[in-house]
Amino acid sequence: MTLGIEQPIQQKLLNFEEFLARYGSDNRYELIDGEVFDLEPTGQHEEVAALITTKICVQIDRIGLPWFVLQRGLFRPADVGMTAFRPDVAVVDRTELAREPLWSEQSVLTRGDSIKFIAEVVSSNWQNDYARKVEDYATLGIREYWIADYAGLGGIRHIGKPKQPTLSICTLVDGEYEIQLLRGNQTITSTTFPDLNLTAEQVLRAGKSDFSREVLKSSQEEVMSNE
After folding, report:
1. Model pLDDT for residues 111-170, shown as the tens digit of each residue
2. Are 165 and 183 in contact (CB under 8 A)?
């Protein structure tokens, strides 16, 4: 199976302004400590992100929350230096956008308070999702963070042995993440979306034909039931 390759693509470290001028218009790239990473997502990577987005959008619409899903917008935390994350899925609170200094001109967020939920789909450089982003997202106050490792790429200390597809649900408690590992038919419990009806397997197997048809049908029925 061919996987997305996430690796630094330049030798010189860049600050945010240099990164934005050179790569900001292309959603393939993010900046971590001055290094530019080409995310190169595969088809299944994108389908996993799309399934999460679809299910979450149904919940946002059903409850009538003033939120929306921003896919691959830049998140440049003001206190993290030469870094601009590009989450696969980020749920943004519209009521906080007036406090965002860059939003009116660019699709760039700087405040953790603007983001209610983040999901990352793991590619080959899994260390960023399991280590760096876990630490930074917790520090920035992101209340819920999912790591969808559909190929079981993460280190043994993160997903156990034998390595297998795993969905990590990170919930912020007293400034640190409590992490629950889910596989197979285990039901996802989300503090942000408590009525979400979804299993780990439905997320991790998105993009595989039989499962995709089944989950799509379920999503369509859910949308129709809310009309």
Report:
1. 999 999 999 999 877 889 999 999 999 999 999 999 999 999 999 999 999 999 999 999
2. yes
Nearest residue to 222 via CA among 49, 65, 63? 63
Name residue, tokens 């292309």.
Answer: 26
Q: CA triplet 103, 109, 113: central angle to 5 degrees?
A: 115
Q: What is the pTM of this model?
A: 0.86
Q: How far apart are CA 110 and CA 113, in angstroms?
A: 9
Average the pLDDT over 16-30 and give the result.
89
Helix (H, G, I), strand (E, B), or coil: what is residue 56?
helix
The residue with tokens 């280590």 is: 131
Closest CA to 156 of 200, 126, 116: 126
Residue 30 exposure: Cα atoms within 13 Å on the Cβ side = 25
Strand, coil or helix: 112: helix
